[in-house]
Backbone:
């Protein structure tokens, strides 16, 4: 089970998207007031925890409208977040594995993250119906 190393503020997708919109110029933020609040909350926090589900939602939000970013651009953004000392994660090495797999493949980031988590917990393979994973080691695509 994961435990935070210090008291942390847990961040939602909307807070992070608003923060990212201005800080790394992924897009014009939706709402200037929300952006200011997001920055204030994160600045005041000793650390901010981002769970795996939120990382997946960041991917889906940035992939969809109105952002429509490529997977490669989103993987660079996730790496920037991972490198920040302000943020804590469930397991950085697992997330880096998922990012690496996502860069090489065509499936959704969440699929690679699921596979990396399952492998971390000693799963020998992840079974799926997702045909985009047929060439990915540790996945078995069912017919």
Residues:
């Amino acid at each position: 089970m994961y435990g935070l190393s210090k008291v942390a503020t847990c961040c939602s997708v909307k807070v992070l998207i608003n923060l990212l919109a201005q800080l790394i110029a992924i897009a014009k933020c939706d709402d200037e007031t929300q952006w200011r609040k997001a920055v204030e909350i994160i600045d005041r926090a000793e650390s901010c925890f981002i769970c795996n589900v939120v990382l997946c939602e960041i991917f889906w939000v940035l992939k969809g409208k109105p952002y429509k970013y490529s997977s490669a651009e989103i993987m660079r953004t996730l790496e920037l977040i991972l490198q920040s000392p302000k943020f804590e994660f469930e397991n950085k090495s697992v997330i880096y594995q998922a990012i690496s797999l996502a860069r090489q493949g065509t499936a959704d980031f969440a699929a690679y993250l699921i596979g990396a988590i399952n492998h971390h917990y000693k799963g020998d393979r992840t079974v799926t119906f997702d045909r985009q994973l047929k060439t990915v080691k540790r996945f078995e695509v069912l017919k």
Q: What stands out?
A: The chain has a mean pLDDT of 87. The first strand starts at residue 9 and ends at 10. The beta strands are 9-10, 48-50, 87-89, 126-128, 139-141. The helical segments are 13-23, 32-44, 52-63, 71-83, 92-104, 109-120.
